[in-house]
Amino acid sequence: MNKTRFNIVLYTPDIPGNTGSIGRTCVALGLRLILIKPYGFDLSEKAVRRAGLDYWKHIELTEYDSWNDFLETEQPENMILFSKTAEKVFYDAPYKENCYLVFGSETKALPATIMKENKSSLYSLPQYSEHIRSLNLSNVATTAAYEALRQISYS
Length: 155
What we know:
Blueprint: E1 7-11, H1 16-29, E2 32-36, H2 46-52, E3 60-64, H3 67-74, E4 79-82, E5 88-89, E6 100-103, H4 112-117, E7 122-124, H5 137-153
Parallel strand pairs: 1-2, 1-6, 2-3, 4-6, 4-7, 5-7
């Protein structure tokens, strides 16, 4: 792998199509996809495969049964967590090689306890309209991944 390698972490994803699309982004950028259970779907569902197309078999996938299992095994030193309520903008995040971009589920976001424990590592993508509750998870993850790639590649 090249020096731009980092990880995308999905905490209890709910929508199979989003996970499949994020997996496709991971293949395109040579990233590892980490999924933390429980999921709102089965990984073998057609919607995951459809969104991931024939790339799904190329995803470097790691699964964990819980957040604590993830922390104990990975021991991540640089986590960047995303929340629409974060005060800091994702352009300012400290993206580095081997960092972990962490996203909550589409319907529940990241738990308050995780956000509280990692408050200094929370970032958001700007939303300027009061008519939008949230952005699509796969769009946010892809946008953040390309910003991380840009910053790591030019650092």
